[in-house]
């Protein structure tokens, strides 16, 4: 449901101020300590950030996709690790439930997800099922009024903090592809569920990914999300939406980097003048700006199409593909404009350079987006 224009502008203004005044000063600290301060998370909860996409009847802000993308652009103007604290609740950790949950499942979990009292994770990826996500091997075997889960998941965002996992597991081993997969809402405290140590990563310190292992975890049958065999489609539709959100974050990061580049290039003097006066530097800034505007236009247009009820599988993949590659190029040029200062840690540019690398990989690699775009285009005949 869309907000009225005044409420939307107020929300965006509030998020912008929170990012500028509260989060930006903490960027280096969060990166160095690999820890998200509890008081910051508490403020995120108060602002309603955990519930941006949750329907109002369950206590969320109920933003349209377009509004969520506008907020995500604002959130992109700081280290992406901050967004990750509530990113799973807004996106991949909650949307299966929002789109496919029963009233009872929604009533049980969505209010806590919206408030941030319940942290969620999305458990699709496995050691042998990365891009080929339909090949999940985690088994869910029906046993009376429960399913017994066995297997392991890999690189699961926020798993170390999660109270509730959306888990894709194979209910029908006779069907090797997506058709044999079902989705489950799995509370963290069920016996047999264990979470590994956070991985050491290239970037986005302060956001964590871990393995999750299921050893005879009995999940009540009422926790199945959608019909048996529908789990892969649940995952794909969750990802269609998540990819748009990530595109918007990429746009925000690019905007932030451009602002930093302009400020630095206007201050930094070489050959007797600010380097912003040199046309080769201007060329890099112009390229960054042009690509950012193009990514933003594609992302927002796709969000509006989705809000209008159109299928946007192809367009969301195109937005994610273009925006994530775009922010990689912008971060690279930002290092170049900053020169030596871009390579040392003090200015934070090298941190963004590392942080944005994952955007080309998670929620579907660039190559998977190309596959999705090409398949749809061929199917549509152009
Ligand atoms: N929405 C709804 N249904 C979808 C869908 C979508 N976006 N994408 C696929 N499906 C359906 C198909 O229609 C098909 O249904 P039928 O069997 O009824 O025809 C079924 O799901 C299987 O689809 P498909 O044949 O396209 O599956 P593939 O195994 O070829 O793989 C890709 C599809 C590669 C697109 C998928 O595996 C993918 O997105 N991989 C990347 C996963 C990813 O993003 N991982 C990141 C980790 S999660 S953070």
List the helices and strands and how they pair.
Layout: H1 5-23, H2 27-33, H3 38-47, H4 65-75, H5 80-90, H6 95-100, H7 103-115, E1 120-123, E2 139-143, E3 146-157, E4 164-170, E5 181-187, E6 193-195, E7 209-220, E8 224-225, H8 231-267, E9 269-270, E10 273-274, H9 279-307, H10 313-338, H11 340-343, H12 349-355, H13 366-380
Parallel strand pairs: 1-4
Antiparallel strand pairs: 2-3, 3-7, 4-5, 5-8, 6-7, 9-10
This protein binds coenzyme a persulfide (COS).
Coenzyme a persulfide (COS) is lined by residues 92, 124-125, 131, 133-134, 177-179, 232-233, 236-237, 239-240, 313, 362-364, 368, 371-372.
Structural notes for this entry:
The protein has 382 residues and is of the alpha+beta class. It has three domains: 5-115, Butyryl-Coa Dehydrogenase, subunit A, domain 1 (Orthogonal Bundle), CATH 1.10.540.10; 120-227, Butyryl-CoA Dehydrogenase, subunit A, domain 2, CATH 2.40.110; 233-380, Butyryl-CoA Dehydrogenase, subunit A, domain 3, CATH 1.20.140.10. Helices cover 51% and strands 15% of the residues. It is built from 13 helices and ten strands. It has helices at 5-23, 27-33, 38-47, 65-75, 80-90, 95-100, 103-115, 231-267, 279-307, 313-338, 340-343, 349-355, 366-380, and strands at 120-123, 139-143, 146-157, 164-170, 181-187, 193-195, 209-220, 224-225, 269-270, 273-274. Strands 1-4-5-8 form a four-stranded mixed sheet. The longest helix is centred in the middle third of the chain and has 37 residues, at 231-267. The radius of gyration is 21 Å and the shape is globular. It starts with a helix and ends with a helix. The model has no long low-confidence stretch (mean pLDDT 97). Bound molecules: coenzyme a persulfide. Residues 92, 124-125, 131, 133-134, 177-179, 232-233, 236-237, 239-240, 313, 362-364, 368, 371-372 line the site of coenzyme a persulfide.
